Amino acid sequence: MPAVPYMLAAGALAGLGQLDLGLLILISVAAAVPADLIWYEIGRKRGMGVIRFLCRISLEPDSCVRDTETRFARRGAHSLVLAKFIPGVETVAPPLAGVFQMRRSRFLAFDALGATLWSVTFLGLGYIFHREVDRIARISAQLGGWMVALLATLLATYLVWKLLRRRRFLAELRIARITPEELRAKLEAGEEIAIVDVRHSVDFEAAPSTIPGATHISVEEFETRHQEIPRDREVVLYCT
User: In terms of Cα–Cα distance, which of 39, 112, 104, 35 is closest to 80?
Assistant: First the structure.
């Protein structure tokens, strides 16, 4: 369930004197860190498979794995501090830390820091703007079913827009696709084909085997290594 609305409401109740703000921060951190630790252990034991599973149910399944890997590889443990503020990243960052075999003590330190910052931010916003939050709650209660219908309509519109954009992207991608069987047939027929393994460095380190004759050039290296790709033959790129 989305935690932010509950944290804003809890912070507002603290601002109205009905709850203790310090205790709320302690409870939210105590709830977040063990859950993240469980995902960290799953990532440590199951590898990239769990990341692909989580990304498969995200709103951006086609770029989720790559974006998360790139962000984590660039910032490492520091990305855990802000992960909870970024939709999608908050879900895959803990298991990805496990995939990277980050030390458990280091993970817990940065994850606890991130959970504390996240809790203080949203509980604090509710605490500071408790009068506005209380007013919004009263208006929502008065609107009743109309407010629920409005929020559901906005969410449905957003999801439909994302779905249409993804379908358009996949339609364009299919124009230039080749199946593994087709590629194998071309190679066995002796056709000269340049094969480029564009997997992220994380995936390559986890499974360093490649298609015979393939050159590994990650997308991030294209600008500096593109001259290694022959221009006089068909080029096939493959990734995860």
Answer: 112
Enumerate the β-bridge partners of residue 195.
Answer: 236
Give me the amino acid identity at 203: D
d(CA 131, CA 125) in angstroms, rounded, equals 11
Q: By the 8 A CB rule, do 42 and 49 touch?
A: no
Query: Which amino acid is residue 140, in one-letter code?
Result: S
Give the Cα separation of 6 and 81 in Å (integer).
21
Average pLDDT, the chain: 83
pLDDT reported for residue 34: 95
DSSP 3-state assignment of 70?
helix
For 126, half-sphere exposure in the C-beta direction (CA atoms, 13 angstrom radius) is 27
Tell whether pTM > 0.70. Answer: no
Q: Tell me, what DSSP letter sits at residue 144?
A: T
- The alpha-carbon radius of gyration of the chain (Å, integer) is 23
Tell me if 115 sits within 8 A of 39, measured CB to CB. no
Residues 137 and 222: their CA atoms lie apart, in Å, by: 51
The amino acid sitting at 100 is F
CA distance 84 to 29: 12
- Can you read off the two tokens belonging to residue 28? 């939210």
Structure tokens at 239: 């990734």
Question: Strand locations in the chain, DSSP E?
Answer: 193-197, 215-216, 234-238
